[in-house]
């Protein structure tokens, strides 16, 4: 079971804590002095599609430190702009007023286990769908899309809205980034399908959501996923393409996940490419989540036609890797307390447990 809570609208104030090198901070200070933050990328009232998309962001009690970066970048801390944004989490521990969960208007506790095995992922997915159906059948019959994301992504909301508004939600659409180029084969069958990686963000139209409904309830989704030995996103590909005959609308050039290291992707982009992206993924080794506010700043600069400042920041980002050739062997994702360092680190990686004041 899940429950919805609406924490008190007291906003937690987050200081701008850019944790990159001093040079990044200085560069940013010089760039940000003149422009207010959160002025762009907010949801304009005129943007109707924004009101018709349910956005879910999957997080975990052990990954709370990631949420700060979302609020410092693409997610507005303003509750009025979080109307359609729902965090889903396995648990939340709310020990005091200053918990980060209170910075979000809607938090859904799924009570799914906190690990990453097939059952848990599928359990979490089932609750994302359940949320859509519950809202749609009660207070929010105006919802026409559901897009789901992870808590380690940058989402360019304006680009998302612009892209989605081209589609007719009364027809079934399954939109995402192709996960593996090879199509998956069904066991003991000659049919194949492709699926969208959940780590890059996936959108479902209202028509497809209605078709999916009998297959994705919390009671049966996880059980069926596990019996096919598929993670949630692969199982969604199976359901869409094989069971419902709705194949993936792939937008691989504009949706990105953490699986793509910046080596392989970002450095081949131009600034224009970057600003066209709908989602960006962040690998945990060199490009940590503290890049999120920086990317957001860059996109704001472009939106505000501050091309000179944008170019300077962009060149800095592109050269960051060359300027920081240190050996990253043994690094691990410190943004979730449940992740453990890999043994045999060559460089002393001080294990800092990201802790939110509680
Ligand atoms: C979280 O804790 C605060 C302070 O104790 C309380 O006011 C608030 O209602 C709690 N929220 C939930 C969802 O329990
Ligand atoms: C599977 O293969 C058989 C034999 O080649 C063929 O008759 C059948 O149509 C195929 N089924 C599908 C769904 O492609
Ligand atoms: C599946 O969809 C395609 C195109 O949308 C259509 O041509 C085909 O007839 C459908 N197949 C089935 C079995 O409904
Ligand atoms: C990084 O460290 C590992 C382990 O010591 C070593 O095998 C590897 O060659 C190093 N890579 C670079 C690029 O220095
Ligand atoms: C890795 O671990 C083994 C066994 O504990 C140890 O002998 C070896 O020196 C370690 N290597 C490094 C690079 O720390």
TrEMBL record:
* UniProt GO cellular component terms: endomembrane system; membrane
- Chain intervals with Basic residues compositional bias: 349-358
The residues that cross the membrane are 12-31
Q: What's one Pfam family the UniProt record gives for this protein? A: Fringe
One MF annotation (Gene Ontology) recorded for this entry? glycosyltransferase activity
Q: Which residues form the Fringe-like glycosyltransferase domain?
A: 51-286
Topology in membrane: Single-pass membrane protein; Single-pass type II membrane protein
Q: Where in the cell is it found?
A: Endomembrane system; Membrane
Q: Where is this region: Disordered?
A: 331-358
Regions annotated as coiled coil: none
Family, similarity comment: Belongs to the glycosyltransferase 31 family.
Highest taxon of the source?
Eukaryota
Keyword line: Glycosyltransferase, Membrane, Signal-anchor, Transferase, Transmembrane, Transmembrane helix
* The protein's name in its UniProt record: Fringe-like glycosyltransferase domain-containing protein
Stretches with biased composition (Polar residues) = 331-348
Keyword DNA damage (UniProt):
no
């Amino acid at each position: 079971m899940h429950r919805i809570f609406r924490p008190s609208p007291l906003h937690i104030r987050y200081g701008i804590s850019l944790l990159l090198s001093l040079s990044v901070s200085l560069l940013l200070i010089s760039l940000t002095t003149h422009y207010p933050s959160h002025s762009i990328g907010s949801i304009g009232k005129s943007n109707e599609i924004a009101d018709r998309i349910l956005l879910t962001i999957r997080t975990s009690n052990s990954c709370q430190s990631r949420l700060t970066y979302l609020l410092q970048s693409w997610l507005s801390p303003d509750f009025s702009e979080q109307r359609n944004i729902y965090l889903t989490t396995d648990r939340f521990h709310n020990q005091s007023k200053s918990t980060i969960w209170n910075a979000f208007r809607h938090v859904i506790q799924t009570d799914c286990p906190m690990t990453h095995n097939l059952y848990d992922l599928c359990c979490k997915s089932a609750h994302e769908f359940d949320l859509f159906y519950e809202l749609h059948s009660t207070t929010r019959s105006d919802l026409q899309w559901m897009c789901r994301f992870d808590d380690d992504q940058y989402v360019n909301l304006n680009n998302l809205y612009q892209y989605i508004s081209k589609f007719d939600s009364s027809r079934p659409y399954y939109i995402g980034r192709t996960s593996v180029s090879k199509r998956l084969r069904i066991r003991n069958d000659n049919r194949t399908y492709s699926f969208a990686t959940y780590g890059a963000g996936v959108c479902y139209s209202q028509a497809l959501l209605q078709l999916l409904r009998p297959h994705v309830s919390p009671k049966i989704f996880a059980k069926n996923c596990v019996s096919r030995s598929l993670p949630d996103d692969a199982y969604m590909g199976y359901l869409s393409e094989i069971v419902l005959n709705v194949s993936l609308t792939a937008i691989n050039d504009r949706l990105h996940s953490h699986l793509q290291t910046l080596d392989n992707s970002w450095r081949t982009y131009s600034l224009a490419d970057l600003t066209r992206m709908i989602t960006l993924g962040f690998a945990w080794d060199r490009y940590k989540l503290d890049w999120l506010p920086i990317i957001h700043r860059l996109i704001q600069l472009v939106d505000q036609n501050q091309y000179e400042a944008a170019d300077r920041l962009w060149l800095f980002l592109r050269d960051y890797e060359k300027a920081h050739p240190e050996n990253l062997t043994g690094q691990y994702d410190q943004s979730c307390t449940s992740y453990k360092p890999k043994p045999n680190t060559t460089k002393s990686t001080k294990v800092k447990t990201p802790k939110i004041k509680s």
